[in-house]
Amino acid sequence: WERSGASFTCERVIPYQDGFEIELRRQGFGPPTMPDSTAPPRRPNHEFAGLQVKLRYADGSEELLDDVEREDREGPITIVAFERRGSGVHSLWLWVMPLPPPGEVRLTVEWPSIGIEPVSLSFEGATIRPGEAI
Fold it and tell me: In the 8-state DSSP scheme, what is residue 129?
């Protein structure tokens, strides 16, 4: 997504044996409007307050991360935001597990507080599964 010198991108997907990481990066935005005005200003990932991330696998399983500061919770897909040392405040890292089955993986992001309507990208799940032919 890009508009008027501001951009929001999926920089990379890094596979592991039991899951994968996604790096999302924001550039050219001022601080987002925080929906909770009583929230402490230095919460982890506070630069991404209001961001919604939805992941859908080819088998129909999906998960919505609507609070980047929430604790892990059980569901068909686990999505947890974490901080990676040295990546800066403009990167958001997500840990996702399990690995997707072969087929389309759709990542959809929406960030109403800064004007990002739902936007999606897709990739083939088999490309991040160890030992699978594509």
Answer: S
pLDDT in tens, 84-120: 777 767 889 999 999 999 999 999 999 998 888 999 9
Output the CA–CA distances (angstroms, integers) from residue 72 to 59, 69, 75, in the order listed. 22, 9, 9
Q: What pTM value is reported for the model?
A: 0.80
If we measure between CA atoms, which residue out of 99, 37, 35 comes closest to residue 68?
35
> What is the rounded CA–CA span in Å between residue 114 and residue 116?
6
Pairing of strands 20-27, 6-15: antiparallel
- Residue 62, burial from CB neighbour count under 10 angstroms (0-12, 13-18, 19+): middle
Backbone φ and ψ of 17, nearest 5°: -65, -35
> What domains appear along the chain, each with residue ranges and CATH number?
2-128 (2.60.40.10)
